[in-house]
Design brief:
By secondary structure, this protein is an alpha/beta fold. It contains seven helices and eleven strands. The strands form two sheets. Strands 1-9-7-8-5-2-3-4 form an eight-stranded mixed β-sheet. The protein has a three-stranded mixed β-sheet with strand order 6-11-10. Helix 4 crosses helix 5 and helix 5 crosses helix 6. It is globular and about 60 Å long. The N and C termini lie far apart (86 Å). Bound molecules: uridine-diphosphate-N-acetylgalactosamine and manganese (II) ion. The site of manganese (II) ion (MN) has 4 residues, from loops. It is a single-pass type II membrane protein.
């Protein structure tokens, strides 16, 4: 058949087809870029709380809830405890939003030993079915263990220098995370967690932790008077808080929020600690002190109870019904480059 059509006709036909495809492509391009626009960096917000029809869950009550703990702050933000949310409802709402979650983890020096336990337990309990990338900052790539990850979950390894003092590592987290967000993470994530590596997940940590900026009550000080919080008390430090101020004492071992809000706070801790260094002072609990000052004057939009970071050192009180993450017992002398506390 083809042979009976003159060659020049075929060529003209092919030419027309190419031009037509070209026009289609050009015409199509704006709609491709408009799809990308909705995923623009820093744009992800919790937004509308939509849920599909047919989800079965217990009816929420106007009267029955936790009475043994406070579940709302005095700036009207949720204070999250077991029993203040229904995981079925939370998941039905938030899985539709499908944010790209980044977790910043440091494992420098001997702390690489904690990676396996942390990551394996996170795969069982942390934002199951969500898209999660663990960013592992380490001075020893070779010690990052192979871990079986769920679908949509990744590990990205970032090299950082070794340190002679543990204080250098904990503060350095703010510097290296600032740089990595600028260079890489901002293009890959909508939501960010900063976490200590020396812990293990025991129960669900899910989308109930999502908000613009969420912080966790430090288990060790949740019953203290504000004057006894271990805030930085020396006015010379940028992290200074006077004795008669304060809401809660938050841990720096778990905090999370929208990518850009977290970036602002991580960078704040970094630049404030640099200022301190210029003035020959280091805040009493390093980045945790700067974090606490920031959160006193820029209230978190959600407070997570100490369920979100307990410790194997401490007995569990009755009002902590679920331990979600627990810090491991560790030999500070042995694991840190310059020994103890
Ligand atoms: C529960 C809690 O409130 N934890 C905080 C507390 O101490 P912690 O005693 O929990 O501090 P830590 O020894 O776990 O150090 C914090 C984190 O830094 C990393 N790391 C540290 C040292 C090192 O040599 N290599 C390394 O990778 C690692 O991810 C570790 O989990 O105080 C620290 C600052 O003083 C941080 O504010 C921690 O978040
Ligand atoms: Mn720790």
């Amino acid at each position: 058949m083809l042979r009976s059509i003159p060659r020049n006709r075929i060529l003209v036909g092919l030419g027309c087809l190419l031009v037509f495809c070209g026009i289609l492509y050009i015409h199509h391009e704006p709609s491709i870029s408009s799809i990308c626009l909705c995923q623009d960096n820093g744009d992800w917000k919790i937004g509308e709380l939509k849920m599909q029809t047919g989800v079965k869950y217990a009816q929420p009550s106007r009267k029955i809830g936790r009475t043994d703990v406070n579940s709302v702050t005095n700036w009207n933000a949720p204070l999250v405890w077991e029993g203040t949310f229904d995981p079925v409802v939370i998941d039905a709402i938030y899985k539709r939003m499908d944010p790209r979650v980044a977790v910043v983890l440091f494992a420098v020096g001997k702390y690489t030993r904690f990676l396996k336990g942390f990551l394996e337990s996170a795969e069982k309990h942390f934002l199951v079915d969500f898209r999660v990338t663990y960013y592992i900052f380490t001075d020893n790539k070779g010690d990052v263990p192979p871990i079986e990850l769920g679908e949509g979950r990744n590990i990205s390894v970032i090299t950082v220098p070794s340190a002679k003092r543990w204080q250098e590592v904990v503060l350095g987290r703010m510097k290296w995370a600032t740089i990595a967000i600028d260079k890489q993470i901002r293009n890959e994530a909508d939501y960010l967690y900063m976490m200590d590596i020396d812990s293990v997940f025991h129960n669900r940590v899910g989308a109930e932790s999502f908000s613009q900026l969420s912080a966790v009550l430090h288990r060790g000080y949740m019953n203290n008077k504000r004057a006894d919080f271990p805030y930085e008390r020396r006015p010379k430090s940028k992290a200074f808080i006077p004795a008669d101020e304060g809401d809660y004492y938050y841990t720096a071992a778990v905090w999370c929020g929208y990518l850009e809000d977290m970036y602002k706070l991580v960078k704040y801790c970094y630049t404030q600690s640099e200022e301190d260094a210029k003035n020959n002072i280091e805040a009493v609990w390093q980045e945790e002190s700067h974090l606490n000052r920031y959160l006193l004057y820029n209230k978190p939009t959600k407070v997570l109870s100490a369920e979100y970071l307990w410790s194997d050192y401490d007995p569990i009180p009755a009002d902590v019904r679920v331990v979600r993450i627990s810090q491991l017992i560790k030999n500070y002398e042995e694991v840190r480059p310059n020994g103890g506390h």
